[in-house]
Specification:
The chain is an all-alpha fold. It has a domain of about 110 residues: Cytochrome Bc1 Complex, Chain D, domain 2. The chain is about 50% helix and about 0% strand. It has 6 helices and 2 strands; from the N terminus they run H-H-H-H-E-H-H-E. A two-stranded antiparallel ribbon has the order 1-2. Helix 4 crosses helix 6 and helix 5 crosses helix 6. The longest helix is centred in the middle third of the chain and has 24 residues. The radius of gyration is 33 Å and the shape is elongated. The chain starts with about 25 loop residues before the first helix and ends with a strand. The chain binds heme C.
Length: about 190
């Protein structure tokens, strides 16, 4: 037994202990924690750090701004049917639009656009018109009272255009279980 490992007098139910110094690494961590605590206290309580409620308010404001910008970017661009006709013919748009459609639209329009809660998007009949600008308008503004969501604050202009391209490509695909036509016939020229 070394000088260090001298047992203390007391004895608790047969348990005895040494009176050794704590290891240096342990003490260092202890002191560092204490020093950190002092700095942290000063940092958080004396105006150096933004208080949490202000941080939350600022982040909510930034989010609102961001949402407004997205809404503007997808809503403000004036487009013509001629422009959209070029866009809907682009294969990369259609494949991107398919991903969006499956993720966001299929729940109501069916995985192949055959219609469920929402109308069939593969036939020639359209409640709100079958021109590209008309379809795009419905996607952007929705028909809230009928259960069609307005997507302009939730999707970028690019995503809306891609979804449009995909819907355009579905025409005449006649998937099984297609919902009965709704609206007026629109013949593509
Ligand atoms: C919560 C269900 C729901 C979701 C999700 C949904 N829709 Fe709809 N959608 C509807 C309903 C219901 C209608 C019919 C509105 C009416 O009767 O006027 C509709 C109508 C439409 C129309 C017009 C069809 C016509 O005949 O004029 C288009 C285009 C359309 N949706 C595209 C989309 C796209 C694109 C998405 C995804 C980005 C989407 N919808 C997501 C429910 C939905």
């Amino acid at each position: 037994m070394t000088e260090e490992d001298k047992l203390l007098e007391h004895d608790y139910d047969g348990i005895q202990e040494y009176d050794n110094d704590l290891p240096r690494w342990w003490r260092n961590i202890f002191w560092l924690t204490g020093i950190f605590g002092v700095f942290y206290l000063v940092w958080t309580h004396f105006g150096f750090k933004e208080p949490q409620h202000q941080q939350l308010a600022r982040e909510i404001q930034e989010l609102e701004q961001h949402k407004a910008e997205i809404a503007k970017s997808s809503g403000s661009v004036e487009v013509t049917d001629e422009q959209l006709m070029k866009l809907v013919a682009m294969p990369e748009r259609i494949s991107k639009g398919k991903e969006i459609f499956v993720a966001k639209c299929a729940a109501c329009h069916g995985i192949n656009g055959e219609g469920l809660v929402g109308p069939n998007l593969t036939d020639d009949f359209w409640i709100h018109g079958g021109k590209p600008t008309q379809i795009r308008k419905v996607i952007m503004e929705g028909v809230p009272e009928k259960g069609m969501i307005s997507w302009q604050a939730l999707m970028t202009a690019d995503e809306i255009n891609s979804a449009l391209a995909y819907i355009w490509s579905l025409n005449g695909t006649s998937p099984p279980n297609g919902k009965a036509p709704e609206g007026d016939e629109f013949k593509r020229s």
